[in-house]
Amino acid sequence: SRRGIRAGAGFWGAGGWLRGAGSGWRITSSTPGKSGLPGTAADLEKRKLIFGKNFIPPKKPKTFLQLVWEALQDVTLIILEIAAIISLGLSFYQPPGEGNEGCATVSGGAEDEGEAEAGWIEGAAILLSVVCVVLVTAFNDWSKEKQFRGLQSRIEQEQKFTVVRGAQVIQIPVAEIVVGDIAQVKYGDLLPSDGIFIQGNDLKIDESSLTGESDQVRKSVDKDPMLLSGTHVMEGSGRMLVTAVGVNSQTGIIFTLLGAGGEEEEKKDKKGNSLIAHLTTDGAAGANATDNANASLVNGMSRTPTKQQDGAAAMEMQPLKSAEGGEGDEKEKKKSSMHKKEKSVLQGKLTKLAVQIGKAGLVMSAITVIILVLYFAVDTFVVNKKQWLPECTPVYVQYFVKFFIIGVTVLVVAVPEGLPLAVTISLAYSVKKMMKDNNLVRHLDACETMGNATAICSDKTGTLTTNRMTVVQAYIGDVHYKEIPDPDSIPNKTLDLLVNAIAINSAYTTKILPPEKEGGLPRQVGNKTECGLLGFVLQLKQDYQPVRNLIPEEKLYKVYTFNSVRKSMSTVVKMPDGSFRMYSKGASEIVLKKCSRIINATGEIRVFRPRDRDEMVKKVIEPMACDGLRTICIAYRDFSSNPEPDWDSENDILTDLTCICVVGIEDPVRPEVPEAIRKCQRAGITVRMVTGDNINTARAIAIKCGIIHPGEDFLCIEGKEFNRRIRNEKGEIEQERIDKIWPKLRVLARSSPTDKHTLVKGIIDSTQVEQRQVVAVTGDGTNDGPALKKADVGFAMGIAGTDVAKEASDIILTDDNFSSIVKAVMWGRNVYDSISKFLQFQLTVNVVAVIVAFTGACITQDSPLKAVQMLWVNLIMDTFASLALATEPPTESLLLRRPYGRNKPLISRTMMKNILGHAVYQLTLIFTLLFVGEKMFKIDSGRNAPLHSPPSEHYTIIFNTFVMMQLFNEINARKIHGERNVFDGIFRNPIFCTIVLGTFAVQIVIVQFGGKPFSCSPLQLDQWMWCVFIGLGELVWGQVIATIPTSRLKFLKEAGRLTEKEEVPEEDLNEDVEEIDHAERELRRGQILWFRGLNRIQTQIEVVNTFKSGTSFQGALRRQSSVTSQNQDVTNISSPSHVSLSNALSSPTSTSAAAAGRECVFLMHQIYRDANSPSHSGLIYIALFPLINLCKTKQKPTHNSTTNTPL
Predict the structure, then answer these.
(1) Is there a single domain that holds both residue 607 and residue 484?
(2) Judgement on whether residues 631 and 710 belong to the same structural domain of the protein
(3) Which of 89-98, 698-707, 1075-1084, 1125-1134 has the lowest mean pLDDT?
(4) How far is the C-alpha of 362 from the C-alpha of 1170, rounded, in Å?
(5) pLDDT for position 806
(6) Where in the sequence does UniProt note compositional bias of the Polar residues kind (predicted)?
(7) Is position 99 within any domain?
(8) Which residues contact 822 (CB under 8 A, 6 or more apart)?
(9) Which tens digits make up the pLDDT trace of 127-168?
């Protein structure tokens, strides 16, 4: 076994007393293995107490204080804090020259003692604003993290596993599994705990998540019975006795090691400790092994279902209830989901835009500060010819600090810190709401990518159809029955054969149960096609259960399980006379080709020639398929017991069959699907059906769904024909050939998972169309993993989908329904629009605030909008606006336009027109108020006020008008495509209404009671009315702007475009090198620990044996090389004195490292020379390993200058 409990140790399981006895395992049965644990609460509790729960404690989330600390790291906030502290310090410092007339341009009379003492308020207010911003940011991060954990636990609760308790087969959440349980494992499962295989057939496991080896491992009760958590069942079924759960399982051990070693390793990372380098050097094995698996996957050689599985147990661990289960700590999860793609179009565009805006803001703020300082210096020292007196220094410094604060404020307003917040809120809100629409989003950005989808490749069964199979036609005994035949019309012998073939040759977990509600349909449990066949048995007034009781599952002699290559399933049973009988069922055209006989109308067997088969295909199978039925052929074959056939030579076994019957199974189209597909087509999304069914069945269903319309120019082809068309003479796939097919392709029938992957890759890589296609794919089978991973958005089926498919997906459809995909498109487009709305609003405020602060500072030597007021405006813009505009619910109208595509700029011409148009209105009014406002309102001018003068009504009116204009412009910002009715659906978004009214209320409080901290003076009612009136003008002005046709404004530039040039390198990077984030690196280390330990022991034993026998140790090294890594070749050179340790990972190239490397080789050479002395073998064994590993990390291939041989 892979890992043993010490010999002699044992524990009590449902299968009896389990002992580790030296060489192998044995189960001494005392309770029947069939009935499982009794399932009593006391027993389960005791087991959890002794052996632990199937739960890995998650990493502790970051505390609120840690998040506050992180928020404080923001550069602009740090600058503001410093400025505020300097301002505070100077306000308390009373310099001797304060009262000196000759100091500065202070006009004396305007300030009294009390006001001078209030100088500290501005600094304190800035600090208070900073605290507000930090708390809001930290709270958002905290709630975001909480949401991720909620999502994680939701995914974990969805994860159920089948166990046997008290002789009942029940499904329980994986966290409830205990040691001693008997669990049923089947194709597509992700094992939630370690266990021993006790009964089953043809079980193959993909252990690449632990070992990095992509080959499937065959398990059997006597040879390799250990099943490990975190591995995938790729074929077969069976039962396992659970031996270890939670932190004691293989996955748990790795996570515990990661948890314990995480902090130490981080410290070591900082020191650049060579041990880690060494670990990762060895670990390249895992990465490389699975990279190779990936390469072969693309060629259809391997069905390992992962891209994310690259050498890591990354998402594999999910069923173990753990927030780490996904990707470690939730922030890392976010990071990894961002890493997953150049896919997230929005992220790329936003990053580019934010950088552009940030640069512009920086330039503006720098110019502002420079102009203010120069103006002050020239005015004071040149025009007024003042001297710089030592006692005046603090006064001047205070002025400079004030200018600096204004500059920083301009920067704060210019930089859109609210963008990431808006994206997060929008995505998180959408994800939450999408759950109600049956979309469980696993990767946040999948939701936004879906809005750009241009193609959907959908399965047929269960997605477009109801997945409720019923047999409606049958061909038995040379008669084609268009409805279920009367059992009396079928010979008894044929009927018995048919019932046995269906009852025995299907998973015993598949059953038909009575309906839950009276008058309802019987419940189908398990594989739906098999349920349809079992239903057929019941319709023939027969029962399948007595047959199964007579031949229980453990008596089945051999099972060839269904897979995408065989497209059939066969079960062998031993007859009472010792002979064998094999029952087969599968796709009719495939099984019929293997039939050489058929049962006729009297129940006798007659010869079935190829021409009979052709006639049957034409007269029976094609008409059934044209009615949209799935055709299944049921057959059998008898074998003699002497000699017993070689069951492993499958081709000799699955031939020469006798056909019993062919049935046509109906799977009706879901009633809502045709409308959903019509919506997709109207929205510019092409729907393609990719199915394993017969081409006629697929075409009939595609017509019913509306995927194809008679008379259109489209392509329906089978997988075989598809492969013939896309491959050249050498059998290689050519992109040009795919480009000729995919634009017209609507139905791909009889396709394998590899075909699906090829098609998806072909569409994504195509350069035939101007926009790169964004492809969504649905899948439910284990083998759909590669296609789900390759697609921009992978949808897995929540009900019919296997664990492996769910792992590979981005979104899980909890109701398996195609119309839920349409809702995902709607939400995706809504996210994109929400971000655009927010940008339109924020950029208007940015442009106005920056220009006002800049011009005001340059002309009046003081910004009309003070630092604290700017921070309040920033709060409105960033936090509140992102909340208000990012939570707009989607509408059907989103589906009336085509996808934006990857190259469409984030800020369209229309939006740019709105931004500049509203900016013009706001700037005109603010400058009017600034320069002639005091005359209009007959109040004192606030311009050129001295340093600590009281707030003026003049500047308060400007601030208040500015905020009112933003509030009403927020309503305008709800529409970004030039619509006139900006109030449309406003009451459907209560959050928006609350925020607008709330902001208005807070603004009243600030103006009336804000006083000195907010630089506000209380306003009269008439002044308030004017401010609101000017604000309302925004709505009228919005209508004026909407009237101007955008097409006329050719000079307007778009912004936030993602160009093709930028896209390509990113795509390459993500496709080939797949960035590894911190969590994944940690998980790789976990995997490395696993197979290093395993291989280390094997190699050490070989080295000892090799040295004992005195032979060269190249064999041992070669063994290490083949197991551990294709990257670190330990090549064998003809002369035994040369061993090249070439290391593909970059090593330090410094002279000291090279010297150390040469030293290693020299020492090894010495040891090797002494190898023939038996007395040295122990020393050699001890010394050699550290040296080999040291050399691996230190040595870069060095060449002998004379012979140019690698040392």
Answers:
(1) yes
(2) no
(3) 1125-1134
(4) 69
(5) 82
(6) 296-309, 1118-1139
(7) no
(8) 676, 679, 680, 895
(9) 776 787 788 778 877 876 777 677 667 766 777 888 998 888
Asked if residue 940 and residue 888 are part of one domain, the reply reads yes
Q: What is the number of residues in the chain?
A: 1207
Average pLDDT over residues 1051-1065: 57
Cα dist from 556 to 361, 506, 549, whole Å? 75, 11, 12
**Same domain assignment for residues 610 and 525:** yes
What band does 19 get if pLDDT is binned at 50, 70 and 90?
very low
Report the pLDDT value the prediction gives residue 296, as an integer from 0 to 100.
Answer: 34
Residue 652 lies in a domain: yes
Enumerate the β-bridge partners of residue 606. 598
What whole-number distance in Å separates Cα of residue 268 and Cα of residue 277?
A: 10
Residues 907 and 1016 occupy one common structural domain? yes
Please list the alpha-helical segments (H only) found in 484-587. Answer: 492-504, 528-539, 545-550
Indicate whether 951 and 983 sit together in one domain. Answer: yes
Evaluate whether 124 touches 89 at the Cβ level (below 8 Å). Answer: no
The tally of CA atoms less than 13 A away on the side-chain side of residue 341 is: 23
1173 inside domain: no
Rounded to whole angstroms, the Cα distance separating 1142 from 1127 reads 8
Which of residues 202, 236, 256 is at a domain's end?
Answer: 256
CA 403 to chain centre: 47
Average pLDDT over residues 1155-1174: 46
Contact 1098, 1119 (CB under 8 A): yes
Could you tell me the CATH number of the domain that includes residue 215? 2.70.150.10
889 shares a domain with 1028: yes
CATH label of the domain that carries residue 877: 1.20.1110.10
Separation CA 349–CA 343 (nearest Å): 11
The CATH number assigned to the domain holding 806 equals 3.40.50.1000
- Domain end, chosen from 229, 256, 283, is at 256
Helix and strand numbers (H, E) in the chain are: 40, 31
- Residues involved in catalysis: 459
Q: What are the E-state strand segments in 754-804?
A: 775-779, 793-797
The more confident residue out of 1084 and 282 is 1084
pLDDT in tens, 68-108: 888 888 766 776 677 678 767 766 766 555 555 556 554 33
Question: Is there a single domain that holds both residue 769 and residue 635?
Answer: no
What string of DSSP letters covers 405-464?
A: HHHHHHHHHHS-THHHHHHHHHHHHHHHHHHHTTEEESSHHHHHHGGG--EEEE-STTTT
Residue owning tokens 């991973």: 789
* pLDDT of 1067: 37
* Phi–psi pair at 813, nearest 5 degrees: -85, 105
At residue 1011, the pLDDT reads: 82
Average pLDDT over residues 584-593: 91
Overall domain count for the chain:
4
What separation in angstroms does the CA of 939 have from each of 233, 479, 951, 1005, 1103? 81, 103, 13, 22, 96
Domain containing 631 equals 470-666
The answer for residues whose C-beta is within 8 angstroms of residue 1022's C-beta and 6 or more apart is none
Cis geometry, peptide bond prior to residue 643 (ω within 30 degrees of 0):
yes
CATH number at residue 650: 3.40.1110.10
Predicted local confidence at residue 410, as pLDDT = 73
Mapped onto helix, strand or coil, the DSSP state of residue 477 is coil
Percentage of residues in the chain with pLDDT exceeding 70? 71
Note the pLDDT tens digit of each residue in 810-867. Answer: 898 888 888 889 999 999 999 888 888 888 888 888 888 888 877 877 777 677 777 7
Average pLDDT, the chain: 75
Q: How far is CA 458 from the centre of its chain?
A: 19
pLDDT of 385-399, one tens digit each?
777 877 778 778 878
CB neighbours (10 Å) of residue 1107?
Answer: 26
What would the DSSP string read from start to end of 887-951? TPPP-GGGGGS----SSS-SB-HHHHHHHHHHHHHHHHHHHHHHHHHHHHTT----TT--TTPPP
1045 within some domain: yes
Structural contact between residues 188 and 162, judged by C-beta atoms closer than 8 angstroms:
no
